[in-house]
């Protein structure tokens, strides 16, 4: 992929939290990129550093306790970490916006939803109040809510409707990058399906790039083009959706697939990943996954594996990662699924 | 053999806007040793059923027969003894454990309440045995809930529940608050315990893939009523109720090699307060006809052991 096509590029990002119990290494040496018009799925369990990463992109992480130790976040070639808060204000909402997990807590309960959407439009475009309110009504219609509900308050909407309002607000200024942090986790399945369908449609309509944080591989399969699997603050595997779903190589990625029940198979065996996520203030040496890995060897405990490009654009951080053409013959011996 | 039988169970809550029909005429039975999965979306009444069948809530109407005995007719003392046989595990182990009791005390509590042991040593031995059974290391005996992670907390919940050798357990979203890798550990533990102690489960969940994994039979609920009941294979391979069909198609599946038709339901679940007559699902159903708006379809046996509450079961595009 050539340099110009990358909308967002994160290089060697390291974020720590200074706490009374010691330094929490939330994100370590993270590298990621998002291409224009593409959706990147950021997958990992609680404490993997997904939310810290995107909050750093938005620069909404409180400093202190967080410390951005190292790294660059290049948005169209410009480093967001070097921007002043004033410059960031013109980027947030207009160029990059974010949707949070719980729509109930991200809306202001004492303002009507129309006013809340209008606020974003007024801040970033030069239109008068009446026009802004009209545009807010347009946005509501885009997400499937009738325009005359603009004067209602958040509590008058159901959970799914509230999340639609939040999406309308995030897309009101037509951002180039939308960050969605578990946008459907708080919703019921049938409502989740509605919201996912809406997001897919809007992505095409506005050609927005997206970073989708989720722990649900089903959502990734449905909506993402690229996938990054995070574990203990690092990306352990990155590739296209096909790379990760059909040709996963990292033991953690494979473990994530074998520990969830499959609705389309009668094989009723779950293979859990043993043990627990390591404490981020006391991470293991070497490969951070070695404490839970079934294939670890002595080297994994001492040395940190480097990232291997196993096929074009498919990266794996594991000593046993093998280039694709020999993978089928050799890896199956070492790492049976 | 039937272990639990529920007949025409109703639970109404009085709210300032009218009667909330949380559970509205549910009949079902659970055989000894099986797992009945109860699925539905938030507010459909599945947790209310879980609480009703072990009498944590009193039913408005209906019968609950446990081992043939009507639970509603038992007095306080008889019910207390009966509770040894029926236990519940809740969704959020952090909220259901006493923050001021350590692991040992938490597990000891049911045994003390029922006065199982008079000898301290025996009590201790039993508790350490239980901890081993559920996979908790002995060194954690003095830890408090806030020091444990979600998976271990849920293991404490499981240990408490099996302490009195129950025959029946209500599992109310026992893995929903856990990360996927931990979820698998707890699901495996529950299945292993079921085999070992010949337990009967009522497994309540909104997660269909988990329900399919663990259940022998599945009951689908919508707005206080059962819409479909059958064995898990029939429900997942050949769903007959339009709601079950939509619910199944809405689940994101972590596979990219399966092509599926998606049924996107419009609108939200209507309010359970003073519901309209007719089929509860009529407003969102794509096969809705006049009769659906006026007549409530009863739960009928369409084929062997496959019950559906729909005027036009098996409709498909």
- Terminal CA distance of chain A reads 31 Å
Mean pLDDT score of chain B: 91
Shape of chain B: globular
CATH topology of chain B, what is it called? Answer: Rossmann fold
Largest interface, C-beta closer than 8 angstroms, per-chain residues: A-B, 43 and 40 residues
Largest sheet of chain A: 8 strands, mixed
Textual characterization of the structure:
The complex is a heterodimer of chains A (337) and B (317). Chain A is α/β, with parallel strands linked by helices. Chain A contains twelve helices and twelve strands. Chain A is globular, with a radius of gyration of 21 Å. Chain A starts with 5 loop residues before the first strand and ends with a helix. Chain B has one domain (2-85, 166-308): P-loop containing nucleotide triphosphate hydrolases (Rossmann fold, 3-Layer(aba) Sandwich), CATH 3.40.50. Chain B is built from eleven helices and twelve strands. In chain B, a hairpin with a 2-residue loop joins strand 9 and strand 10. The radius of gyration of chain B is 21 Å and the shape is globular. The two termini of chain B are 39 Å apart. The A-B interface holds A 45-46, 158, 160-161, 188-194, 196-197, 215-222, 241-242, 245-246, 255-257, 259-264, 268, 270-274, 276-277 and B 41-42, 149, 151, 179-185, 187-188, 206, 208-210, 212-214, 236, 246-258, 262, 264-266, 268-269.
Short description:
The complex is a heterodimer of chains A (337) and B (317). With 337 residues, chain A is an alpha/beta fold.
């Amino acid at each position: 992929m050539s340099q110009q096509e990358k909308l967002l590029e994160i290089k060697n990002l390291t974020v720590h939290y200074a706490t009374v119990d010691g330094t929490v290494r939330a994100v370590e040496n993270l590298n990621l990129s998002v291409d224009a018009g593409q959706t990147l799925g950021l997958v990992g369990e609680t404490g993997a550093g997904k939310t810290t990463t995107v909050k750093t992109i938005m620069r909404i992480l409180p400093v202190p306790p967080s410390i951005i130790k190292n790294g660059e976040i290049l948005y169209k070639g410009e480093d967001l970490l070097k921007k002043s808060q004033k410059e960031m204000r013109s980027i947030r909402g207009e160029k990059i916006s974010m949707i949070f997990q719980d729509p109930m807590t991200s809306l202001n309960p004492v303002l009507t939803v129309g006013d809340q959407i209008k606020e974003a439009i007024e801040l970033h475009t030069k239109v008068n109040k009446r026009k802004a309110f009209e545009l807010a009504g347009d946005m509501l219609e885009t997400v499937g809510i009738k325009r005359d509900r603009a004067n209602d308050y958040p509590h008058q909407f159901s959970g799914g409707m509230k999340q639609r309002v939040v999406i309308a607000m995030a897309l009101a200024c037509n951002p180039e990058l939308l960050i969605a942090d578990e946008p459907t986790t708080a919703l019921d399945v049938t409502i989740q399906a509605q919201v996912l369908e809406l997001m897919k449609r809007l992505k095409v309509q506005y050609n927005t790039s997206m970073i989708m944080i989720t722990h649900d591989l089903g959502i990734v399969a449905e909506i993402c083009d690229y996938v990054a699997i995070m574990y203990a603050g690092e990306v352990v595997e990155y590739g296209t959706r096909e790379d990760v779903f059909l040709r996963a190589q990292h033991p953690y990625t494979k473990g994530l697939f074998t520990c969830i029940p499959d609705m389309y198979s009668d094989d009723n065996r779950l293979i859990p990943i043993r043990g627990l996520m390591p404490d981020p203030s006391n991470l293991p040496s070497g490969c951070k996954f070695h404490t839970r890995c079934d294939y670890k060897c002595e080297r994994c405990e001492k040395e940190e594996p480097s990232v291997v490009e196993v096929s074009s654009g498919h990266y794996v951080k594991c000593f046993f990662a093998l280039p694709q053409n020999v993978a089928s013959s050799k890896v199956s011996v070492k790492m049976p699924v | 053999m039937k272990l639990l039988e529920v007949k025409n169970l109703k639970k109404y809550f009085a709210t300032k806007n009218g009667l909330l029909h949380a559970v509205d005429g549910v009949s079902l039975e659970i055989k000894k040793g099986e797992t009945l999965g109860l699925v539905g979306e938030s507010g459909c009444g599945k947790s209310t059923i879980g609480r009703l069948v072990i009498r944590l809530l009193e039913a408005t109407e209906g019968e609950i027969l446990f081992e043939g005995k009507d639970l509603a007719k038992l007095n306080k003392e008889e019910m207390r003894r009966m509770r040894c046989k029926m236990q519940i595990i809740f969704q959020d182990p952090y909220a259901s454990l006493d923050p001021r009791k350590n692991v040992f005390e938490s597990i000891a509590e049911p045994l003390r309440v029922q006065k199982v042991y008079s000898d301290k040593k025996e009590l201790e031995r039993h508790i350490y045995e239980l901890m081993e059974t559920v996979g908790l290391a002995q060194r954690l005996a003095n830890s408090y809930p806030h020091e444990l992670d979600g998976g271990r907390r849920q293991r404490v919940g499981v240990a408490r529940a099996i302490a009195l050798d129950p025959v029946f357990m209500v599992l109310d979203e026992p893995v929903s608050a856990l990360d996927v890798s931990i979820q698998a550990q707890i699901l495996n533990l529950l299945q292993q315990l079921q085999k070992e102690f010949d337990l009967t489960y009522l497994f309540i969940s909104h997660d269909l893939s988990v329900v399919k994994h663990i259940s022998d039979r599945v009951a689908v609920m919508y707005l206080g009523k059962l819409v479909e009941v059958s064995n898990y294979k029939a429900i997942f391979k050949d769903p007959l109720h339009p709601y079950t069909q939509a619910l199944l198609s809405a689940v994101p599946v972590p596979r990219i090699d399966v092509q599926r038709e998606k049924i996107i339901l419009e609108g939200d679940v209507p309010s359970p307060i003073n519901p309209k007559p007719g089929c509860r699902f009529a407003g969102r159903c794509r096969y809705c006809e006049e009769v659906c708006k006026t007549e409530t379809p009863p739960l009928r046996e369409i084929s062997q052991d496959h019950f559906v509450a729909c005027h036009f079961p098996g409709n498909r595009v």
